[in-house]
Amino acid sequence: MINKTMIVLAFGVLCIQTAFADREDCYGWRFESQYRTDWSDARSRCSYLDGELWRPTYGKWGCASNLVRRISGYIWTGAHRSSEKHSWKWTDGSSVYGEHWWPGEPNDAGDEDCVIVSDRGWNDELCRDVFMFVCQWRRVIYMKMKRIVVTTFLADLYPMVLLEIASMFVQRLTTATIDDALDTMTTTVYTVKDRSSRRNIGKHILYRLITGNVIVKACSWRSDSTRCYPGSCVGQLASKCKCTRGFSGSQCDEITESIKIMHAEAKLSDDSNKILTTPDDPNVPYHQPVKWSNNNKWNFLELDFSLNYHIFERPPKPDPTGEKHFVIYFKYDIVKALLEIEHRSQGVSRNNRMLNCCNGYSYPIFHITNCGKKKKFDIQSWGFQHADKLTITCTAENGGFLIYRDREDGNRDINVRLKGKTVQSSLVFRWDYITPYQECINGSKTDCNQPPVDCKDVSKQPDIKVRWGGWKDDLSGIDHFELELYELVSTGRHLNHINGPAVHRDEKISVHTSEQILKLPKPGMYSMILTSIDRAGNHQSARCLVFYDDISVVDIKHTKRIKVNEASAKTNFTWVSVDDVELSVTWTDRFLNERHEKHGWMYGVAGYVGVQEEYDDLYGPRKVSPIDNIHGIVKFEIKYEVYGPYLKANQSFTQTANVLSQAEYLNITWEDGYRLDITVKALDILDIYKDDIISVYKDVSPPVIQNLWLTKGDRVNISVHSMEDFSKMTIEWEAFDYASGLDQVEWRLYNNYTGIEEHGKATPTTQGESETLEDCINKYGSAPKGSSCYCTMFHGCYHKHFHIRPNIVKDSGITPGKEIGLHDSDYFIEVTVINKALLKTTKTIQISLDLSPPHEGYVHDGLKGESEVDFQQDLNIDAHWEGFFDKESGVDFYQYIFSDHCFSKNEMAISKKKQVTYNTYATYNATSEGIYFISVTAVNRASESSKVVCSDGVTVTTTIPFIKDFVFGDIKAKGQLLKDHNDTWWLLDSNLIRHRITELSGLPNNSTEMSQNSKDLKVFPEGRPIDKIESEILNTKSKSGIIGVLPTHQSFQIKWKSGVAESLIHDYAIGISSTPGSMAPDINSFHSSKHHNHFRIRHSYLAEGGEFYIIVKTTSRSGIDGYQSIGPFIVDKTPPKYINNVINVHNVNDYLLLSWRDNVFDEEDPFPLYYEYAVGHTSSKQDVQSFTSISSVGPCYVTYPPTCSAVLLSDLQWPLHVNHDYYITLRVTNVAGLSSTAVSAPFRYNIQLPSKGMVFDVLPEDIKAHGMK
């Protein structure tokens, strides 16, 4: 079977979210007229249309409200409650905004999680209820369209065909324009014939595209067509079927218009004729809010419902004969209308009633009026409890059926039932007996500190903002708030509401309002009562208190004061003379707020009827409990600052622990002379304050009196001698108090300890009254001893030196008649000083006669208790003395002077460099090294000096001692050239005497540079300079810088001279070390030479071949050690060793040539070996030629180490005989004098020439082949 389908390919643009298809359709809102369904089905239908449920906030509310009024009913929106139950979402999951709720909604009366809308606004509703709905979608602008016909052999390939066509179209759009892509879709022809192609859709083409006509179906009774009844088919074409308005579906057998409930009302009444009605408007019967009650005495329930089923278009009449139309019967109307009453308590249905509204009506039923109006239900016995629910539900359903005749099946009549619509509306009463609550107080919300009603506790302004929040009612919900304002007045020791009406009352405050601003008429205490009322009429009240005062003043009582209790009352509590860290500060009755105290505004507030305790004002500074205060002051703060004179410590304002005590303890760390500023701040409840400050000072130390003595000229601290007139004496002392200064000074003169016989007294000025140090210096600059000023931190400056020449005036000097004293008697001078802290100091001295000088003692160099010092390194020189005394008046002080010589008494008297001390020791910092002496004299209290005593002197030196002219008596060495670090060339000869080389032109470039420093080289004696170096010395160079070799002696002798003066040398010590510069020799530790400059050392412990150094430690008498390393040296006990005993002897041109290899001897010796040869008739003999140094003559050129020697045969001591054998002996000797010899094989002396031979001019091979002929 061939199937043809027309496909329309369209290309369009999807606009932005807020652009919609039709302005006439209210910006894309499509109304499904008279079609009602639940929320989930409405959502699915909109999604099927590529849209979504209506969002009223997408357009203006004016447009939305016009659409709602035109529809005249309730409409589903896309808003619904998410799983969190507290968040509203649109169908795409985005959050809802721009809500327009009914008053009191949403109330969630029984899982109402979906939203409907009417001209009144939004309301939450059960999602299973049925209402009309509106869809909305985005606009699509069509730009291009092409129609094509698809022909297939298999009908079930349509989905695959459509998918392939769409895919091809999209692919062509990537390389062609829209017009070209659409045009090419008609030029390609494809075919498909079987189902197997579906299994390989990527390899086969499944359809054929052709242009042509479309095969269509007609309206009929057949099951594969449409009856289209009630409706009409234009041209009898099924595609042209149009259902009668009010019907839909492929067969037009689905009713689309619902029954409308036109009027709904339910009433409760009791014996007192009290009536509760729902809804408020009976003409709006759908989705009415729950009506709440807290009355459990209702007796009767009355109902009144009216319904209407309206048809906008009359269906075509059926043909009972079946000739003109195959539908022969058709019927529709209201098929069901019921009223159901249900009483549910604790989730269980308790009482139920039902009423059939169709009773009394005949077919067709399109209108029902006043259903239930004539019946009164007795509910007195039902006993409604908390949370009970009384639901009146009206359910209405339309429907019907038709009969059509099947003309292909023997004209059989078939009955078809119409698919009707069911409408339902419920009116609900609920009971709530529990009062509202605030969630923080109820405890239903944790971490909550919000009061039920909150206002500013204290204010200086009359406008008070009142806030509230957190109010809940778990069942019916909060309906509104009421707010009342009352003035409070004192009654006894409490504050109560004033008699009379409220100052302000607002009886209807919206639940959406959470604050108000009230204006207070005058200063005072006020009570604000907030009452929360739920929908059932239950109420709960809460209170907040506010204190308003814009003229508050804190005053000071001038008859009271702040004081530090530890301060002395004698100083008017100005000076603290105790060393306590903790100070007690009090200010009893110093501060007050007279109005606050008089009106009792700090009293506690009496309870209020209707306000439970937990809902009363328990928060903030002004709550129902009384406020601790003293004379209207609710808080004290204290701060302090310690100055000395600058800020030393401080504490910012800190609240005291107890306002009633009017006191505080301060932990103060301060010192004498410091000032403590204490500020006390008194605050009322409005933080209006007054502060007061005091200053106190600390001085726990009494004043000081020192240097109380008699003076004579420049002499001080002397006794009266040769002077009997007290008026001629001069009394001096120093009196001062750096902390507080002086307040009073007094002196007395008396002649015994009892003080009864008084010779005079006076009270001189304290010598203060100067603000600055400069003023004091200017004021007392002409004093006998000059100005001696000091300044206290806060009490001015004083001159501390007192100089008194007493006049003969009663009570102001020497008492008349008592100015003459007795010879050899003791008198006493007493001075009393009082400081500003009134602390007193008294000092007394005794004066007597003394004419003899002190006795001299002994002076030593060095510290006391240590040995006498004659030499030292340090420039700091110490000295001490002892034995000076004066039995009459004692030694007053000492005079001394350090110098390079001893001073006489006259020199000491006139010297300006002498020093004065009261100690028996002195220290001097010398400027340079040398010898120093100290001269000392003692002075008694009569100013007489003893004889001058001088020390024996101390020598200061830091010179490092060293030795020179070092001689190593038993050492063996060879002369060698050395260069020190100053590029000076030296010849160190075999006796270890160094010679400076003056002519450097002949020196080789590879001469040895000294590895030791110049001091080590200078230790050797210096000989005369030389300018010419022998050639054999130029080739002399020791291995490893060895200076000399020690033979096999058991001991050796060394000697030296001191490099510094012998008087500075304390000792020498000799050691042997394997390394240079060692301060702890490892071969032989240091041994003293007992101050000798020679030393003998046994060296049996020295290893042969091992290097060693002579370490000389020189110690000076000042304790300085000088170290010198001399070496290296080695011990050699072994003669040279033969390695290759082969000596060749030849006669070359009348020269006897001796030759050997350069490795004949082991060259382990540090210095070059000495080579000799001898000639004899027998081995090791020298009877022809005695041992002679090798020479470089004839065919032999001698190098080092040498490998040959030659001698003219004529120069031998004895001539050689022809055809005789001779032996050559080679001897080598090292620097230690140890030698070894080597003997050649026999040498035959023969001078005969060989005989002549024959020469043949042939090849040797020919001779072998043919032989000689």
UniProtKB/TrEMBL annotation:
It comes from the Eukaryota. Residues 1-21 form the signal peptide. Residues 22-136 form the C-type lectin domain. InterPro entries: C-type_lectin-like, C-type_lectin-like/link_sf, CTDL_fold, EGF. The keyword Signal applies. Keywords: Signal. The keyword Lyase does not apply. CDD domains: CLECT. PANTHER family: OS03G0226600 PROTEIN, OS10G0105400 PROTEIN. This is C-type lectin domain-containing protein. It comes from Mytilus galloprovincialis. The lineage of its organism: Eukaryota, Metazoa, Spiralia, Lophotrochozoa, Mollusca.
